[in-house]
Amino acid sequence: MTHQEIIAQLRRLVRRLRWLNVLQLIPDTLVIYGILQLGFSQDFVTLFNTTFTRQKASLVTIMFALIDLCVTGIRHNDRLEGRKLISQLRGKLSAAEAELIKQFQRLK
Questions:
Q1: Residue 36: how many CB atoms within 10 A of its CB?
Q2: What is the SS3 string spanning 12-77?
Q3: How far apart are CA 102 and CA 104, in angstroms?
Q4: Domain limits, the chain
């Protein structure tokens, strides 16, 4: 891969990681919401104005947690890919390229 191809892929990866960071807030919030609703309810649990039995509400919360785990896994793989791309860069980097690498490192 050429230097420019690596930088272009790293730019796409930084953009994707930013979106994944925002996206991660949704399943995180859903898991916390489900756990709080389960913790403060008795036999029936209301999630998003829908009443569930405690067992089914637990299953819904577990599904929220699995979605959260999947997004976390995607982010982890993207970070590994970014590290591999950065390790392939050789020679002197321009200021913009160095800033791109700093942006990637901040997204961890």
A1: 11
A2: HHHHHHHHHHHHHHHHHHHHHHHHHHHHCCCCEEEECCEEEEHHHHHHHHHHHHHHHHHHHHHHHH
A3: 5
A4: 3-106
Do residues 30 and 64 touch, judged by C-beta distance below 8 A?
yes
User: Rg of the chain over CA atoms, in angstroms?
Assistant: 20
Q: Which of 107, 84, 108 is nearest to 9 (CA)?
A: 84
Over residues 24-62, the pLDDT tens digits come to 999 999 999 999 999 998 889 988 989 999 999 999 999
Residue partners of 100: CB distance under 8 A and separation at least 6: 7, 10, 11, 14
- pTM value is 0.82
